[in-house]
Design a protein that fits this description.
- The protein folds into two domains: about 160 residues, Rossmann fold (3-Layer(aba) Sandwich); about 120 residues, Zinc Finger, Delta Prime, domain 3.
- A five-stranded parallel sheet has the order 2-3-4-1-5, with helices on both faces.
- The mean pLDDT is about 90.
- The chain is of the alpha/beta class.
- The protein is about 55% helix and about 10% strand.
Length: about 325
């Protein structure tokens, strides 16, 4: 359905549509932002619209649109790898494909998802195509860390950083997955902080719900050894859950502050209101603010690869000290 399918990102979508309608399409675009922002979705729908020779991919039945929807359009090329980086050989393969003219329409689109994973050699190789692209070629990049790309790549690319989605937009996106409990849905929307992919992942993965349940239970009874060891085991077995665990704890402490300042209508964990009020009753504002500050430091340290097991121990101690 092309760009008309996109929920949110209204300014960005409007700009992209204008490029197409005015016939002022450039040769290289990038979509950047945190993981889960929908960069890939926007890139693919943009590619869909670019490739439609009639400029109406929304409901269009042309061969280009049909084959794009089926994943067989020869004018669309995606760089795909199962490795942790995108090597120069993959970019050379892209360049070979660029030399062939479009099969169906007037354009060919080349998509590099996770372009910030390209090696320096791969980026320098891509630069040759960016410097002298055929008139029919459009290269689209997506990147979490756009600044990781070489300055020579960035100077030849129009970058669009995706903005956080509103609560209403995220609600529309995740509604097909929504739980029956409206307050629980509000939690996922608030906790996602404007990142729809995060909300979707939390709803789809039972492991997140279990982690949240255990952490909130531990915050209720911080001296419960059995509960402590359950949380320790989950975090030990799943390193990727550590940032989420910090986020859950911080959301509870933040909600406790809201309760203590008379703003119960602004809770992130609104589905756990009674529990939050119980935890808040045993805390002081100063203690909560100190713990939030400590957790923010822990978040920063985690990005710089602190000893993971030590990080778990410190996190559990922080819970017990409130």
């Amino acid at each position: 359905m092309g760009l008309n399918k996109i929920i949110g990102q209204k300014t960005l979508v409007s700009q992209l549509k204008k490029f197409l309608s005015d016939g002022k399409l450039g040769h290289a675009y990038a979509f950047s932002g945190p993981e889960g922002m929908g960069k890939r979705t926007v890139a693919l729908e943009f590619a869909h619209d670019i490739l439609c020779p009639f400029g109406k991919s929304d409901g269009c039945g042309c061969v280009s649109c049909r084959t794009f929807a089926e994943g067989t359009n020869p004018d669309f090329y995606e760089v795909i790898t199962d490795k942790s980086s995108i090597g120069v050989d993959l970019i050379r393969a892209l360049q070979e494909h660029v030399s062939n003219r479009p099969a169906y329409g007037y354009k060919k689109v080349y998509f590099i998802d996770g372009a910030d994973m390209m090696t320096v050699q791969a980026q320098n190789c891509l630069l040759k195509t960016l410097e002298e692209p055929p008139e029919y070629a459009v290269i689209i990049l997506s990147a979490v860390n756009y600044d990781a790309l070489l300055p020579t790549i960035r100077s030849r690319t129009v970058n669009f950083r995706l903005e956080p989605y509103s609560e209403g937009e995220i609600r529309r996106i995740i509604m097909p997955l929504a739980p029956k409990n409206a307050n629980e849905l509000d939690f996922y929307i608030n906790f996602s902080r404007g990142i729809p992919g995060k909300a979707v992942r939390m709803l789809e993965e039972s492991s997140f719900r279990e982690l949240r349940h255990l952490i909130i239970g531990l915050l209720q009874k911080p001296t419960d050894f059995s509960q402590t060891e359950k949380v320790r085991k989950i975090l030990t077995d799943n390193k990727g859950d550590f940032p989420e665990a910090i986020g859950i704890i911080m959301s509870v402490y933040r909600d406790c502050l809201m309760v203590l300042t008379g703003m119960e209508n602004r809770l992130i964990n609104s589905d756990k209101k009674d529990i939050i009020k119980g935890i808040a009753s045993a805390c002081s504002k100063r203690k909560l603010m100190d713990r939030l500050s400590a957790l923010e430091n822990m978040q920063r340290n985690f990005r710089y690869n602190i000893n993971y097991q030590l990080g778990i121990d410190i996190l559990l101690l922080e819970i017990q000290e409130v």
